[in-house]
Fold these 2 entries.
Entry 1:
Amino acid sequence: MIACLPRTLLWQTFLMVALLLIIALGSWSQIFRYFQEPARARDVAQMVVSVVNLTRTALINADAGRRTDLLIELAALEGIRIYPAEASDELEPLKATRPMRLLTDDVRSQLGAHTRFASRWKSLSGFWVSFRLEPDDQLDEYWVMLPGERIENPSSFDWLMWGVGALVAAMLGAYLIAARMGKPLRQVEDAAKRVGSGETPMPLDESGPQEIAVVAHAFNQMTSALARTDADRALILAGVSHDLRTPLARLRLGVEMSGAPDSEVSAMVSDIEEMDRIIGQFLDFGRGTPQEPPQALDLVQLTREIIEPYRLRGVELRLDAPERLVGCVRPLSLRRALANLIDNALRYAGEDSALDVSVGVQEGELCIEVADRGPGIPESEVERMRHPFTRLEKARSNAKGAGLGLAIVERVMRAHGGRLDLLAREGGGLRAILRLPGGGNASVRARMQSAHPGGQ
């Protein structure tokens, strides 16, 4: 039952207020009926008693020969029918409701305890009440029928319509109140999404109710602080790139010209290159979500351009791809993601082991896969490996790096509206698959914009 309830504050508030209004209206309706029914019962009873008394008087004073004409005239003009009571009369009792009980008690108290009531006499329906011409004459008894509309409350439908109208107006007001409460929250939600995507949103309106104004003011302060932090981060990254990589370049040049044995020079240059790659990973991760605009690109050509430098280094790379496969991607960030996967595979599987790279379409998604024969990743550790600064020390004890490669790839794929799959390879190893949304360029672009509203 709880799972069927709406999850938004707007509809939860509206339903709660609407429920309270319905309960309140129902309660007031019952209270009104409870106190209104006795008064109406007295008025109707007085009318019934008056009709009976007038009819009795007319019958008593009329000539015996004209009583039939009198009965016909009452039926024609007033809708009142009068029949003599007989022991064989077929009667149907009145409904056992509170208003009817109040009415019959009041009539009986005025006409006498011998008064009887029925809702049907023989085949005629109506409000039937008995009377005697003389209180003690049990043989001279008559039935008088009043039309049902005189007894029923003719304004019940009117009251119902007015009640429904009032309820609809109250529920409309409740919806407007709930919507007014939800609008500032939706503005905060939209601004929070922009902050999460790396943008600096426009300041929220700090007017309105005090509680909303306080939240908007606190959010604006947080946004300003994050913007200053982001600017400081960009400045620090620029300094790191210059202050660390320049000395590393001089250090590498000095090592290569030192005259040391080639084996030692090669080892030191390798360490310097590893330090440079780690710095590059920190810079890539620190830049945040890529902001470049998506564009149509041949994924096969992009993959060939990335793997060619590795082949020139002597790395065995087998490519399985069609002649052409166009996708809507952010080229620079996708290049970085694919290069990270290849570097990750070479680091853990070794450059002597062949890598299998494939490009294709699977279940409507564009896929680029890098498969190695390294130690792989246990299924229980896959999600943890997507986080920054995470490595499998036991399985890949000889691996170097800062543990940012897969975290960067994960972030790039989220910006593309896709995902990174890390699967065990049959026969040992790891399959790292970049899954990009397929379909037309327009729909893919829309999905990428949804995944990252800050993209242009």
Entry 2:
Amino acid sequence: MDIVGRRFSDQVQYVFHVDSGPALGRTRAGTRLLCQFDTAGRARCWAGGEEALEGDASAAEGLASRSGRLRVFAGLRDDPYFNNVRGTRRALTIAAEALRAGQAPRTASGLPRFDAPTLARIAAEWRRTDGGPARNFLAGWTTSAIVLSVDLDVVATGGPLLAVWARTERRQAVPADGAMPAPGAPIDRMGRALTGNALVGTLAEEDIADQLKEAYNRAEPAGWAGFATEIARNLALYDGLDGVAGNQWLADAKDDSPARYRRLAELLADDRLWVDSRQTRCRHYLAVERQAFGVALPPDCGGRTPLHEVNAVFRSLLVRGTPDVADDGLRHDDREHSTVDFPFLSAP
């Protein structure tokens, strides 16, 4: 879990949720992994009711619990996420201007029909930054990371499929017995990358988009399904960015109605990143989700390693149904990361 800043707040608790079950979308147990920090930056972390640790976790090797089943690093690292934000915003601005000018009529499904010159401008500007080569907007940002390594038997109590999401909350007091603190009021949340930023209030006015994103970030899991309609509306926008109707992943090419995007919208509204804990090869982003809907892939744990091209895979699936195009012109982070050596992320 990465934040922008040099230290973690002593007024916030940082929580990983790992739900577990037998299949995609079906979980029957959940484990919270929570860290708090004091004003000196010392960490106190828990993994369910099984593991706990306390101390300075800023050394590269991290800090281990007494049993060794939980290890935590908390300190400055390089965030492996990369994104040509300026190029993406410019591409979406061109799309929004065409829609406002009536130059891209929408079909019954909500898909916009951009003309060929507009599609060419969108594609060209998406691959550039301020008119030049694509640049990573996040390069050089000061970020701090909480990295947890936990034994599977601590978190896979409901089955081998793990559904992971994380949240920041208002800090709660530690009980007298030293047990994990109770949940606090939610602040921000992340499951899969980009869902909140790319598919909630995508072209809405700024104040409306902010309200939608705040509501999405603070929603409890029981309320996530309520955002499927908003997500579907913006899936239609992305489906139109290559000029081919209905070729988005999981879209119904023959159904020109809002139902065309329902399957993917409902999948993404359940904002958890899925990991198959029985697999040790992790080469494909969203592998569990894609395999569940018939995509032929070799056995893969899914999830999201620091090496995955998250933007390329996700946005390409939304635009053309394949995971192989980097629309924003970027293919890798500015630093080298590891999938083997704890804490995995490059030094700052």
